């Protein structure tokens, strides 16, 4: 089951660049939350703070607190533990090029020392079914490399790979921006199904996409969160003038 | 009017295309030609002296016809095996450090600079270095000393190609592993190095092929041996050394054997490199890249 995320006074820097300033929001469990905003507004940095990927950059720094249920992810746990509980799907599909489809999905478990073959077979199948890829690849699981799939299939493979480690939260950083419309709609359908089991945070440039998949939407601008509300409210009756300007296409 | 101009331009364009293609083809031929020429000449000069005795017998004393280079072939295999045991792990380890753990640090810059300098050190100097480091303390020449000299020569090539190949692994692949909660060291070994492994193997093979033909570093270390010897603690024969000794000798029979030795050396290097490529490529899946 998914878990809610409580963010308070989150600040993030790249070197001397203050990319996130005083972010406060509550991401509800088992819902999809969309983050929109112009390029460079900090939304990618924000999701990377939720699984502590931000700090893999040596010049990056974070202050403030992020709570997942009872756990303060910056105070109570190591980054690798957090990343197992908070899965991530990246902008460009990034399957491991030397691995088969099966090994790509099993990678997160295998590389963490989980080697029960029978259980792995089951998890791989379940994850591929959950990412709506099973029927397309079930005959080539060990024969084909992850890199031999189409872009849309690769992205669903990456979703399966993230699901296989059984996270509670799934972060998606513009998961469909490199895909064609057909693959995009498959990913969106998937988000719809997955939110019953996971808490989903999706960064997107595509406002229609946010409107289609997410219950909650946050608008970021220049490193600050301008507005956070139900998607319907944001898109029909935003409180802030800047949000309105952005969603009506006056800038960005 | 404009049609005429267009035709002229098109003609010029296809001429330029033809010229560029011809230059490319010509350059390719110029690259391959020396290799083919050397190989053909070696076969012409050396193939007639190749027989079973060449691979099974040790050199005959001066004045006797026949004999072979079995001891030198064996010795070269031993020396190169030892060199690889030293050069490959240290080189790959250094390359991993440069690219994954020490990037941007002063230590990494110092190591990179040292490796580049080491790469440019003449091979005879390597031989002298191994002589003073290994031969002098042990008080005698040995196969071990030769292996050390060749191994040290392999390190910079392996190290720098490993680094270059690791740097070519896309950042998103590393992020994918870290995003799954895989510890950094595990991600480096199981994902980054594995992804770069075809290039790393090429680097090892380049280094291997380069030292396989080295003569100078062996003169003060392995020294050469006219008899069959398997003792790592004693002088050992090597193909390049044997070729050198036979080639500068005044005997026609030895000259022929030297040609045959050179041919065998090249063929063995090609075989070794192909074998490694075959073995290491079997696990690679179809469709990857």
Main beta-sheet annotation of chain A: 6 strands, mixed
- Distance between the amino and carboxyl termini of chain B: 49 Å
Q: Quick check: average pLDDT of chain A?
A: 91
- N-to-C SSE string of chain A, H for helix and E for strand: EEEHEEHEHHHHEHEHEEHH
**Helical segment count of chain A:** 10
Q: Could you report the average pLDDT of chain B, rounded to the nearest whole number?
A: 90
Structural class of chain A: alpha/beta
Annotated CATH architecture of one domain in chain A: 3-Layer(aba) Sandwich
- Name of the top-level CATH class of chain B: Mainly Alpha
Give the helix proportion of chain B (percent range).
Answer: over 70%
CATH class of one domain in chain A: Alpha Beta
How would you portray this structure in words?
The complex is a heterodimer of chains A (252) and B (289). With 252 residues, chain A is an alpha/beta fold. Chain A has a domain at 5-94 and 169-247: Rossmann fold (3-Layer(aba) Sandwich), CATH 3.40.50. Chain A is 36% helix and 25% strand. Chain A has helices at residues 43-50, 79-85, 101-110, 117-130, 134-137, 151-164, 181-194, 207-213, 231-236, 241-247, and strands spanning 5-14, 17-27, 32-36, 60-68, 71-72, 86-89, 169-173, 199-203, 216-221, 224-230. In chain A, the strands form two sheets. Chain A has a six-stranded mixed beta sheet with strand order 6-7-8-3-9-10, sandwiched between helices. In chain A, helix 7 (181-194) links the parallel strand 7 (169-173) and strand 8 (199-203). Chain A starts with a strand and ends in a 5-residue tail after the last helix. Chain B is mainly alpha-helical and 289 residues long. Chain B has a single domain, classed as Orthogonal Bundle (MetI-like fold), CATH 1.10.3720. Helices cover 76% and strands 0% of the residues of chain B. Chain B contains eleven helices and no strands. In chain B, helix 3 (70-101) packs across helix 10 and helix 4 (106-120) crosses helix 6 (143-167). At the A-B interface, helix 2 and helix 6 of A face helix 7 and helix 8 of B.
């Amino acid at each position: 089951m998914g878990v809610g995320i409580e963010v308070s006074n989150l600040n993030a820097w790249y070197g001397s660049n203050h990319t996130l300033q005083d972010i406060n929001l509550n991401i509800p469990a088992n819902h999809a939350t969309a983050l929109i905003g112009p390029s460079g507004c900090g939304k990618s940095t924000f999701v990377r703070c939720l699984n502590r990927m931000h700090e893999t950059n040596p010049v990056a720094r974070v202050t403030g607190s992020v709570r997942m249920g009872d756990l303060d992810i910056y105070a109570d746990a190591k980054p690798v533990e957090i990343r197992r509980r908070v899965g991530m799907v990246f902008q460009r599909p990034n399957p491991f090029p030397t691995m088969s489809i099966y090994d790509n999905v099993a990678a997160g478990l295998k590389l963490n020392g989980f080697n029960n073959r029978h259980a792995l077979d089951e998890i791989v199948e379940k994850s591929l079914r959950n990412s709506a890829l099973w029927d397309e690849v079930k005959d080539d699981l060990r024969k084909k490399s992850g890199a031999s799939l189409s872009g849309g299939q690769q992205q669903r493979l990456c979703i399966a790979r993230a699901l296989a480690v059984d996270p509670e939260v799934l972060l998606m950083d513009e998961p469909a921006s490199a895909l064609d419309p057909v693959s995009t709609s498959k990913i969106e359908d998937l988000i719809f199904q997955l939110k019953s089991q996971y808490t989903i945070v999706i960064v997107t440039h595509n406002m229609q996409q946010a409107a289609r998949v997410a219950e909650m939407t946050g608008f970021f601008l220049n490193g600050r969160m301008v507005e956070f509300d139900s998607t319907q409210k944001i898109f029909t009756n935003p409180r802030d003038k800047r949000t309105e300007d952005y969603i009506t296409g006056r800038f960005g | 009017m404009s049609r005429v101009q267009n035709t002229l331009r098109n003609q010029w364009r296809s001429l330029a295309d033809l010229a560029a293609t011809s230059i490319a083809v010509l350059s390719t031929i110029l690259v391959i030609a020396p290799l083919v020429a050397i190989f053909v000449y070696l076969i012409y000069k050396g193939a007639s002296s190749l027989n079973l005795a060449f691979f099974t017998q040790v050199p005959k004393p001066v004045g006797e016809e026949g004999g072979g280079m079995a001891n030198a072939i064996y010795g070269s295999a031993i020396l190169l095996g030892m060199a690889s045991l030293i050069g490959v792990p240290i080189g790959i380890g250094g390359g991993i450090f440069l690219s994954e753990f020490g990037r941007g640090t002063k230590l990494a810059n110092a190591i990179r600079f040292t490796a580049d300098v080491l790469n440019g050190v003449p091979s005879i100097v390597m031989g002298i270095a191994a002589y003073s480091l290994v031969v002098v303390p042990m008080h005698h020449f040995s196969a071990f000393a030769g292996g050390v000299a060749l191994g040290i020569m392999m390190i910079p090539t392996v190290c720098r190609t490993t680094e270059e190949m690791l740097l070519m692994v896309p950042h998103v692949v590393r992020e994918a592993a870290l995003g799954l909660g895989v510890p950094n060291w595990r991600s480096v070994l199981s994902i980054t190095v594995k992804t770069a492994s075809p290039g790393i193997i090429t680097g090892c093979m380049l280094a291997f092929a380069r030292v396989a033909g080295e003569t100078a570093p062996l003169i003060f270390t392995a020294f050469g041996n006219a008899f069959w010897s398997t003792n790592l603690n004693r002088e050992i024969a090597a193909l390049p050394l044997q070729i050198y000794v036979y080639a500068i000798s005044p005997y026609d029979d030895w000259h022929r054997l030297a040609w045959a030795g050179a041919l065998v050396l090249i063929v063995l290097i090609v075989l070794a490199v192909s074998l490694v490529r075959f073995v290491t490529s079997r696990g690679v899946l179809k469709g990857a890249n």
